[in-house]
Design brief:
Layout lengths: L1 H17 L5 H20 L3 E8 L3 H11 L3 E8 L2 H7 L6 E8 L2 E8 L19 E7 L2 H10 L3 E2 L5 E2 L11 E6 L5 E6 L8 H4 L9 E11 L2 H11 L3 E9 L1 H7 L5 E8 L5 E9 L18 E6 L4 H7 L12 E3 L7 E7 L5 E6 L5
Parallel strand pairs: 1-4, 5-9, 10-13, 14-17
Antiparallel strand pairs: 1-14, 2-3, 3-4, 5-10, 6-8, 7-8, 8-9, 11-12, 12-13, 15-16, 16-17
Length: 362
């Protein structure tokens, strides 16, 4: 209970210090946000997932993820519904959705058939504020990189990197950045014993001869870790699972950013992949997230975050409706993959979250 009150106090102080006028109305709103934050923190997010990305050519993307990375297709649907129009803020959208699975985790591919999207900028860098990736755990980094190279993937990293042993939280981890056919960033990562989620030490067999095991987390560039913690931890109720500061030539070669120095913070919900903040302390974060980005643009990712009740979450987030992509909280029918109550919105840096509950509670 003391932890819950601490999170509520943080939310309350954050609201008060963000307003210059301490009017009774402001105090009333602040108290309501505090109560919502406490209720959310008490329950916390049930799960993260699925993680979704917008693609330009579904056939091409499915072939890449299934043939190269050995995901398995588990659903394939062509959807249109008035509720989806409100969810995505796109009237009359027809969306082809394919759900893939690797291990216990799911990835959704979305192609907006009648809303051609803008491509990911070809000169995207790892410190641009729209940067996001999923980290795919492997049991053999050398075998994984050989497989990627055999399929002629586009690398971002200079080569697979082993983080130095002087780093107590990240030493011994091996990683490699690359891109899918639409220029989305991806990572393969190997955790040595004692590092990462303990379950990766027991899940050591991929699909067939594949070295790919599952999705550990999705990483997002943030401009201010403390601000992002106020949103994800203090408002949404995520727990901090780990922190690290990474620098050196290995990190520079991994991200392909000269002089990179990162503050990294890992968050977890009740289950599912984690969310990892990447704050570039050096050099400064790159280009900002375009304000006019739509879900149909290929740069769009969305992180599914499931709660038992959406009411307290919606109340806590209602103070900044300008960050909402959805027209309002939407009730989605069982015929859609995201059934229940849902709202699509952006975090302080522009990354999209599909916040939902499995059944209506508003």
């Amino acid at each position: 209970m003391s932890d819950i009150l601490l999170q509520g106090e943080r939310a309350f102080v954050s609201v008060l210090t963000s307003w210059k006028v301490r009017s009774p109305l402001c105090l009333l709103i602040a108290a309501a946000l505090l109560l919502s934050a406490v209720l959310i923190r008490g329950a916390g997010p049930l799960a993260v997932g699925p993680i979704s990305i917008t693609v330009s050519d579904m056939e091409q993307s499915v072939a890449f993820y299934t043939n190269v990375l050995t995901f398995r297709k588990i659903a394939d649907r062509d959807l249109h519904n008035p509720a989806m129009d409100k969810l995505f803020g796109l009237f009359g959208a027809r969306v082809h959705v394919v759900k893939l699975r690797l291990g216990d985790e799911e990835l959704e591919l979305m192609e907006f058939r009648n809303f051609p999207g803008r491509p990911v900028p070809i000169d995207s860098q790892s410190n641009d504020q729209w940067f996001q990736h999923i980290a795919i755990v492997v049991n053999d980094m050398d075998a994984a990189v050989r497989r990627l190279e055999a399929h002629r993937v586009k690398p971002t990293s200079v080569a697979a990197q082993k983080l130095p042993d002087w780093n107590p939280n990240a030493g011994g981890i091996r990683a490699f950045y690359f891109r899918d056919p639409d220029n989305h960033n991806l990572e393969v990562i190997y955790f040595p014993p004692g590092k990462g989620d303990p379950r990766w030490q027991t899940v050591r067999t991929g699909t067939g001869q594949s070295p790919f095991l599952g999705i550990d987390h999705t990483a997002i560039v943030v401009t201010d870790t403390d601000r992002s913690l106020r949103f994800y931890r203090d408002t949404l109720g995520f727990r901090v699972a780990g922190e690290s500061r990474n620098w050196g030539i290995e990190q520079e070669y991994l991200n392909h950013i000269e002089g990179a120095r990162l503050r990294i913070t890992g968050l977890r919900a009740g289950s599912g992949p984690g969310i990892e903040f990447l704050e570039y302390e050096k050099p400064n974060p790159g280009r900002p997230f375009p304000n006019d980005t739509r879900p149909s643009d290929i740069v769009h990712w969305q992180i599914g975050v499931r709660f038992s009740q959406l009411g307290p979450v919606a109340a806590a987030l209602s103070g900044n409706r300008s960050r909402w992509i959805s027209i309002d909280v939407v009730t989605l029918p069982q015929s859609l993959p995201w059934s229940g109550e849902a709202v699509l919105l952006r975090d302080p840096d522009g990354h999209a979250l599909l916040v939902n509950s499995p059944k209506g509670d508003l």
